[in-house]
Amino acid sequence: MGQLESPSSSEGKVITKEEACNVTVSDQRLLDLGYRPEFRREMSLFGVLGISFCSIGILNGMSSALQTGLFSGGPLGLFWGWNICSLFMLLIAFSFAEICSAYPTMGGLYFWVCKMKPDVPILGFFTGWLYSMAMVFTGVSANLSAALYLSSMAEVGRGRSLTRLEIAAIAWAVNIFSGIVNTIGTKAIGHMSTLFVWWTLGGTVCLVTTLLVKAPMMNSADFVFTNVQNFTGWQSQGFVVLLGFLQAVYTLEGCETAAQVAEEAVRAEILAPLAVVGSIAGSWLIGLAYLLALLFAVQDISSVQATTFAIPIAQLYYDAVGPRLSQMCLVVIMVSQVMAAITTFTASSRLFYALARDNAFPLKKQFMTLNRFQAPYWGVWSSVLIGCIISCAYIGSAIAFNAILSSAAISVMLSYMQPIIIRVFWPDSIEDFGPFRLGKWSWPVNLASLLFTIFVCVLFILPTAYPVNVFNMNYAIVAVGGLLVVITINWFWWGRHSFKGLVKTAMPRH
Fold it and tell me: Which residues face 230 on adjacent strands?
């Protein structure tokens, strides 16, 4: 194969011989997979790791979803659910890292499925579309959460509740801001993701210290590790505790995002899998420290459950540290939330690019166009537009909006399931392994990952309150079902004629 001139070094930038060698190795691996390098490789391990950390968003994710576990299982469910789910999510991360090391390209789950089962193109098509929509919906959820934190700060500081229209307007502003940052390109995202790692570490120290020092009453270890709370109406204590596990799964989704920027990282076949595993391992430990501080410092769970604040965690902070410090803590979480929202649009835009490259997405030329900052701006602003449209649903019906967003978490897990199923039932599906390999542990790890993923998908669609009525019903199954129907219609109407599998773009230059 002839050598292709690499786009990976910026014009006018002096790079060392070692850096040039690393770039050449990464680009050659991409060429071997059939793709021409299009992006400059400007991300280090810290930048790639930060992308996954951003997507997981341990501070904002745990804060936003804490009430799910706090009201369904209480401290016992939260503590044990966090550790059990973290363990299984780490197994999923190991499974993904092995695949990512073999196929270090953007597209992530979608590309892996297409590469490992090229004889079933519909499977890759469904995975790509389902996962791309899940990323957009996750970004919309993150943007609205940022707006809810700002609304809670207004309530805490000024005693003023924002209207749904005002909250939606803030979410639109965050949507647009996410688009602007992503349009600036790889360097901006790399710097932000690096900042996010430090923000998460510093923010955790800040929040944990504030809670433990300022809380007027500290709970006992017996309360933290054994107390069960049930505000669901269900009688089965075991089922209620299991419902609380959803908080941990929701928080820990996102480790695979590192694969979306693999074509922008040096030695991606090594750095991307390390980032996938490292983000879960780090999030497990950081999240555990933050969770324990919350559980030791919570003053009254009933007060949190009955709060009038836009987001329940604001009540926990208000009771524990007072109004002034609670606003400071909410700022720390909100900034983390905004950076996480930006990362989801990074992932969705790269996925749109990968789908368009393989004729699995319309307007191929437009979605593959990069601006001078090396950003696939059509994918970025399509994500922003969809996000703003979905945010409008919040104005009319919070129930409908929540159904759309809860479908994102299920869609992510359903997308996780596809490459794992292939690795379980077709263990020889990877022809050429990368540097990261599980060896004899590969099949057991994939089997455990598959069983856990199925369990979580079932748990996500079960009703979370009893008796079930039109106001507390879990409409996620309706939203996911609707999304699958739309993708199915799209496949038979357009996809099966256009998409035949991965399209090689590498054109050796002689």
Answer: 72
Place of tokens 């299982």: 73
Question: Cβ–Cβ contacts within 10 Å for residue 222, how many?
Answer: 9
Concatenated DSSP letters of 166-183: HHHHHHHHHHHHHHHHHH
Closest CA to 39 of 118, 120, 105: 105
From CA 66, how far away is CA 401, in angstroms rounded? 19
Task: Tell me the three-class secondary structure of 190-256, residue by residue.
Answer: HHHHHHHHHHHHHHHHHHHHHHHHHCCCCCCHHHHHHCCCECCCCCCHHHHHHHHHHHHHHHHCCHH
Extract the tokens encoding 304: 């949190």
Residues with Cβ within 8 Å of 242's Cβ and at least 6 positions away in sequence, in order, are 73, 77, 459
Instruction: Report whether 300 contacts 308 (CB < 8 A).
Output: no
pLDDT digits (tens, 9 = 90+) for 90-133: 999 999 999 999 888 877 898 899 999 999 999 999 999 999 88
CA distance 231 to 420: 35
pLDDT per residue as tens digits for the range 421-464: 999 999 998 888 889 999 999 999 999 999 999 999 998 888 88
